[in-house]
Design goal:
Layout (H helix, E strand, L loop, with lengths): L6 E7 L6 H6 L7 E7 L5 H6 L6 E6 L5 H14 L4 E4 L11 H9 L5 E5 L5 H5 L2 H18 L12 E4 H6 L11 H11 L4 E5 L14 H26 L5 H27 L6 H28 L5
Parallel strand pairs: 1-2, 1-4, 2-3, 5-7
Antiparallel strand pairs: 4-6, 5-6
Helix pairs in contact: 6-8, 6-9, 8-9, 10-11
């Protein structure tokens, strides 16, 4: 327990027989329950968890492989059923430093924030320890997640090392959150709609412990980017139109429309110019006006969004 609050750790696992034992062994003693969600592993992960002599450990087995997000949601639902106060998530590959867990749990247990997440990018260690492709891919997705979620103050969107309060977890519509690798990104979008207070905390990245990653950022980035585009428009509709109203929706709409019109007209005129047609001065002025006005409307909309969410930290 921490500050009188019962703490649970959800450990999503799929084919992690090599590292699951060391992961469980490192979980601190203040944790009351360890819920290992076996996402239909094909190796001995489930057997190793069942053989654990730690009374806090419980195996929650899924019959079908649904992805990391599905496993986390299964663990969340189990934690809600047991009315656990602070629910954390740690991967089963031993890449999350257990010494950082208390840093995430304490502000949630004290009611300072609703959702605490680790940030591996805040120190210089990440650039030295993380593979370059993962670091750059993470940086790109973090920027896109800031825009989509409205949490402009958070980074390292792909980290799954988190802690959430039972009150906030009970409010979320868990069935609507994306179940694949983009789960942490979509989670932030949904948290923002509920005005959850979210804060980053520095965490030491851990690599070279025998983990193997099947993530291919060339495929993952386009998929999650599209997920974030949909999440962005869903958040604007839910938060600034349906549940409340904010004029930033008009600024975003005008910014997107004018920028798209300027780009389209510019491409058409370029094609005509390549075919030998002359471009008139009024056309050039119109293209420039559309692009400048569109960018200004978009930037103002982002600024309004930042101001609207500045207290959610």
């Amino acid at each position: 327990m921490v500050d009188g609050k019962r703490v649970a750790v959800v450990v999503p696992a799929h084919d992690e027989e090599r590292l699951i034992a060391s992961t469980l062994a490192g979980i601190p003693e203040f944790v009351d329950r360890i819920l290992v969600v076996d996402d239909a592993s094909g190796d001995g992960t489930a057997e190793l968890v069942r053989s654990s002599d730690d009374p806090r450990v419980e195996l929650v087995a899924r019959e079908e492989n649904g992805g990391v997000g599905a496993a986390i949601v299964t663990g969340y639902e189990r934690a809600l059923a047991e009315e656990l106060d602070v629910v954390c998530v740690m991967a089963a590959d031993n890449q999350m430093d257990p010494d950082d867990l208390l840093t995430l749990v304490e502000p949630v247990a004290r009611g300072e924030v609703d959702y605490a997440k680790a940030n591996r990018l805040v120190t210089g260690e990440a650039w030295k320890l993380m593979p370059r492709s993962r670091y750059l891919g993470n940086a790109i997705l973090s920027l896109l997640t800031k825009i989509a979620s409205g949490y402009w103050h958070v980074a390292d969107s792909q980290t799954g090392y988190t802690a959430i309060s039972r009150r906030m977890l009970a409010q979320l519509e868990l069935d609507r959150i994306y179940r694949g690798y983009g789960f942490p990104n979509d989670m932030l979008v949904h948290l923002n709609v509920w005005n959850a207070r979210v804060r980053d905390f520095p965490s030491r990245p851990v690599y070279g412990v025998g983990e193997t990653s099947g993530i291919r950022f060339r495929r993952v980035i386009p998929r999650i980017s599209w997920l974030l585009v949909k999440g962005f428009f869903w958040r604007l509709r839910e938060k600034y139109v349906i549940r409340d109203f904010h004029p930033l929706v008009f600024f975003y709409a005008l910014g997107i429309l004018m920028t798209a019109a300027g780009l389209l007209l510019g491409v058409v005129e370029l094609i005509l110019r390549l075919k030998g047609n002359e471009i008139t001065t009024p056309t050039i002025v119109l293209v420039a006006l559309l692009l400048i006005s569109g960018s200004q409307f978009t930037l103002f909309a982002m600024w309004f969004d930042m101001e609207s969410n500045k207290d959610l930290r």
